[in-house]
Structure formats: C-alpha cells, structure tokens
Amino acid sequence: MISRLTFAVGFGLTAALTATAQDKAPAKPDAQMQAVLDQLAALNGKPIPQCTPEEARKQPTPTDAVTALLKKQGKSLDPEPVGSVKDAMYPAAMGNQPVRVYTPKGDGPFPVLAYWHGGGWVIADLDTYDSSCRALCNAANCIVASMDYRRAPEHPFPAAADDAFAGYHWVLKNAATWNGDPERVAVGGESAGGNLAAVTTLRARDKGLVLPVHQLLVYPVTDNNLETPSYVKNAAAKPLDKPMMKWFFAHAVNNNSSAAINPYAFPMRAQLAKLPPATVLNAEIDPLLDDGVKYAAKLKAAGVPVTQQTFPGVTHEFFGMGAVVDKSKEAVKVAADALKTAFAK
C-alpha cells in the first residue's frame, strides 16, 4: 500500500506528516524496481563522481536500463503514443534552447504543463525524460512543453534557473499558438527539474508574473543539505546516491558561496507564502526524500495547499518507468488527478 503524507489541498484531504526517513537501514526495492536496477548495473556504467561532465553525459541512464529490460522481456520499445510531438526552440535567457511540445488527442484548447527534466543540472536531456512527458500528456489530457536549459559546469547557477523562468514566460505568451490555454498553465519537473519548477514559481510570484495554477514537484532538489536523514539512510542508493549529489552540487554551484543560500538555487531558503497549490511526489529509496517531505511541510506552514506522497519500494527516477514499474503508473495518476483538478478551476 502506498504510504501517504497528505496535507489539505483545498479538496478536503488531510493527513499527518509521516514520510520521514527515520530508520537507519535502507529499504529494499520491490521486484519490479530491482529488475531495473539490475539492468542498469549490467550496463557497466562508470560511477558519475569518477567522471568529467562530458564523460558523465555518455554514461548509461535509468532510461537505458528500462529499454534493456523491455528487450529482455520481449516487450515493445515503442514510446507511448500521444496526439502529436513537435520539436521547436524557445528564447531562453541567453540564446535559444530546445522545447518539445506533446499534445494529446482531441480538439483543445488544452491546458499546459511547462516541464523540466532532471539530471542534476549537468546531465540528461529531453530524450531522457520523454516517457514522463508522454504519460502526463495522456493522463492529465494536457499539453506538456518539455524545455531544455543550459547545463553546468559550462553554465553554472543561475543559468538553468534563468532559462526556466524565461521558458515559463514564453509558454504564457505562446501557448495559444499551439492550441494551449494560456490561462491554465502549470509547472512541473523531476529532480533538478522539480527544483526549476519550484524556483520558477517563486520568481513568478516575486516578479508579479501570472502564477502557475499548480506545481508538480517530483522528487525535487530543494536544499543542499547532504546530512538529512534520507541522505544518511540512502547514501549508497542507486541510481542516485549521496556522492552523485555532492558532484552535481559542485558543478552546478561551482564554488559560488552566494548560490548556496540563494532561494532561487535552493527554494528551501525562500519564504513560501502566496504560492499556488503543489503536489510533491517522492521515492522511498532516495537521498532526496527529505527534500520533498520538508519542502511540503514548509509550504503547508506558509498556508499553501499541498499534497505530498511517498511511494515505497522504489528509487529516484521511478516516475518515468511506467512500462516496467507499476508504482510509476500510480504516481502519474496522482500527478494527473491533481493537475486536472487545478486545470478545472
């Protein structure tokens, strides 16, 4: 049964804060998750902390492991179909960046989810997170605008945050041109992308820009504290461990001491009042578990409607694994239900 940590979200849902990493022994992945991890190990990637950024970007990913597992199981490798997928460019903070627009079947106009991929601000791209965008497009019946951004260390903080904010502004201005409804725009992302979604929401509030109707934060990076209980408990977890996060921070912040306390780098540092409702989804076996749990608690304390849910027996990156991990499908449904409720308002 899925463990829940749910706060009142304006829909009458309440529960107690229960999903903290209190036990010292790490949890064990369920059978489906373990099968993916076994495939990832079989791809013999070099540990990310031992790589240069260029080398790290060439290492096998959890997405590659899912593909390998599907082949082993004799299943189709075809991506989940949506109405249409179009690649374009958007004007980011410094030059253009790629955007991939997923549109569901139907007539529209559709609500829009501006989405940012993970990868510690250093690795990964739109292709790596294609399955998440397709699943959300269909489940929430919305356009998903998956936006790339400049990566560190070539472009350390605040490059990615600046691009994300520029991308959100672009979506508001241009949604109607691709059959989207500019009055129903949400933001979302996974891991570092969840960080960018949260930061973009903060900046929209602070700059007086139209706020998103909802924030979907999937195992977001909200802090740079490497000593939380979940970092300690899941220090050696796969596919994300504590040394990897230390490596990501070193490249993304790049010895910028002011970034370490900047709320646009780490939103746990921010004042969170007057923000739109949020859904925060986490994996049990993940150093970032407490980042999500504590950020949800701080949102609640600031009067923001929020739902946080932790999925047991799965690890970081599980969200886009619906082809082989059932709990991914459950998480996508939770996310989609929250988005549809927000879009309906």
Principal-axes geometry comes out as globular
Distance between the termini: 30 Å
List the quaternary state of the chains: single chain
Which residues sit in consecutive blocks of at least 5 with pLDDT less than 50?
1-22
Mean pLDDT: 93
Characterization of this structure:
With 345 residues, the chain is an alpha/beta fold. The chain has one domain (3-30, 71-344): Alpha/Beta hydrolase fold, catalytic domain (Rossmann fold, 3-Layer(aba) Sandwich), CATH 3.40.50. It is 34% helix and 19% strand. The protein has a nine-stranded mixed beta sheet, with helices on both faces. Helix 6 links the parallel strand 6 (180-190) and strand 7. It is globular, with a radius of gyration of 18 Å. The model is unreliable at 1-22 (pLDDT under 50).
Secondary structure topology:
Elements: E1 3-6, H1 31-42, H2 53-56, H3 62-72, E2 84-92, E3 95-103, E4 110-116, H4 130-140, E5 143-147, H5 159-174, E6 180-190, H6 192-207, E7 215-218, H7 229-233, H8 242-253, E8 278-285, H9 289-301, E9 306-315, H10 326-344
Parallel strand pairs: 4-5, 4-6, 6-7, 7-8, 8-9
Antiparallel strand pairs: 1-9, 2-3, 3-5
Helix pairs in contact: 1-3, 4-10, 5-6
Features:
345 residues; alpha/beta; Rossmann fold; 9-stranded mixed sheet; 10 helices; 9 strands; globular; disordered N terminus
